[in-house]
Amino acid sequence: MKMIELASGTSVWRGMDYYESKKVTDWTEISPTIYEGHVQGSAFEPYTVRIDTVHPRRSVCNCAFAAGRHVICKHMIALYFTAVPQAVQDFEDMVKQWEKEQEEQQQKHLAELRAYVRSLSKKELQEQLYNALLEIKDLNQRRW
Ligand SMILES: [Zn+2]
Q1: End-of-domain residue from the set 83, 107, 131
Q2: Same domain, 78 and 113
Q3: What is the DSSP letter of 36?
Q4: Which residues surround ligand 1, an ion (CB under 5 A)?
């Protein structure tokens, strides 16, 4: 999963798109952790990509984003997902886990909000409601 962790979110999602639309035209396993292949990008010629899944920064691609830099591009991610099916599974599990945590956070936040509202006196509630209505009105005015 190092490849994913070192890539930007944009590269990961664009790489996933490339993987799903089968933009990796061919690939070879050089060793169990090194793969080479070609990825059809926006240019006419496919990009030549080499990934090292243990040392991701040694990966290379001749696209404008990655050429001469030690960054992970969407073509590397596309090759990674294509050559290592387990990586797709791990990534999907990670996203599910993240969504579950987000959901739990949200539930916790709502419970805290409910508890807070219940702890207020009538006078405090009236004041808070008045402030909230003013804020809503203010937001609406800004929108138009
Ligand atoms: Zn690239």
Answers
A1: 83
A2: no
A3: E
A4: 61, 63, 66, 73, 75
Q: What is the CA radius of gyration of the chain?
A: 24
Which of 60, 83, 106 finishes a domain?
83
How would you write 42-65 as a 3-class SS string? CCCCCEEEEEECCCHHHCEECCCC
Do residue 29 and residue 79 come from a single domain? yes
pLDDT tens for 33-77 read 999 999 998 888 999 999 999 999 999 999 999 999 999 999 999
Claim: this prediction has a pTM higher than 0.85: no
CA of 79 from ligand 1 middle (Å) equals: 10
Residues 67 and 113 in one domain: no
Q: Is 17 helix (H, G, I), strand (E, B) or coil?
A: helix
36 and 15 in a common domain? yes
In this predicted structure, the answer to whether residue 93 has a pLDDT above a threshold of 90 is: yes
Residue 100 pLDDT class (50, 70, 90 cuts): very high
Q: Which domain holds residue 97?
A: 92-143
